[in-house]
Every structure is written in C-alpha cells, then in structure tokens.
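Please annotate the following for my students:
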Amino acid sequence: MSDRTRREEKEDVLVREKNEEPKKYKVLLLNDDYTSMEFVVWVLIQIFRHSQAAATRIMLHIHHSGVGVAGVYSREIAETRVAQVLEAARDAGHPLQCEIEPE
C-alpha cells in the first residue's frame, strides 16, 4: 500500500485545471452581384435560424457593406454551417460565398 495519507490523496483530487472556453468563429456571408436577396434571407432563416426580420436586416447589411456576420459558433459548427450554405447555394445555382474567421 502507498505511504500517502488520505489528506494527500484528497488534495490531489481537488486540484483541477480550469477548462477554457472553445474559441469562437464568425460565419461570414459575402455579397455578390448574382445571388438574390431572397435566397440570402432564406439561407439566414433556414441554416442560421434567424427570424424573418433579423434575416432581412443582416441581408441588407451584407448588401450595403459587402460582408456580414451570419452567426458565431465553435469551429466545428461554423465549418458545418459554411458547408451547408455552399451546398444550398450550389444546388440553387447561386455563387454565394461563405467563410469563417476567428472572433
């Protein structure tokens, strides 16, 4: 048996490293001259779960500034959302581009 006392064992159990929050990533939609505003709103509602009003507001921001944040997620979720957007755009015949960047 070990020479360690119960107190030493208990202290070892109580020492824990603090878990860091996972890094967050912004999913960005990029404006282009060919993708319809209606399709961008549809993407924001269906893929990013925004309300109609929020989706319209974000779409107008993208239209006027050239880029907009569709959502902020962990890396894995952000990558999945980008893939979903690109697949939906390809299937609908739109050149909509989407990317992620660290927050």
